[in-house]
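Continuing the batch. This is chain 6 of the set; chains 1 through 5 are on the previous pages. Same settings as before, nothing changed between runs. Recording input and output for traceability.
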Amino acid sequence: MNKMTRGGDNAIQQFLLWHGEKIIVGIIVVVALWFALKGLGYQTLSWQPSELERVANEAETAIRNNTRTAEDEDIQIFDYMTFASHIRVPILAIPYRSESAWMPTLISARPPAPSAQE
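Output for chain 6:
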C-alpha cells in the first residue's frame, strides 16, 4: 500500500516532496498569464448576451423600416458595369517599355511589334 493512502503526519510532507515543484510551476504560469493579459489590455465583456440580441433586433428593425433612397440623400450612384467594361480592355505595354541595357524587352510576355521601317 502507498504511504499516501495510509494517512499520518508523513503524508503531507510526501505529497509536497513529490508534487511541490509542479504546484510552484503552476502558480508561476498562472501569474505569468495574468501579467500577459493585463499587459495586452485584456478586458472582460461589459455586456450580456441579451443586450447584444436587443441591439441586433433594433438594427434589423431600423434596416427594415428604412425608406430613404439614394435620390433622397443626393448620393451619386457609381456605374460599375461601365467601369468593368473598361477594365476588360487590354493595357498597352508601350508606356511600360524599359530602355535600359539590363531589360531591353517589354515587360509583358508579348514580343514587340515590328516597326514600319523594317
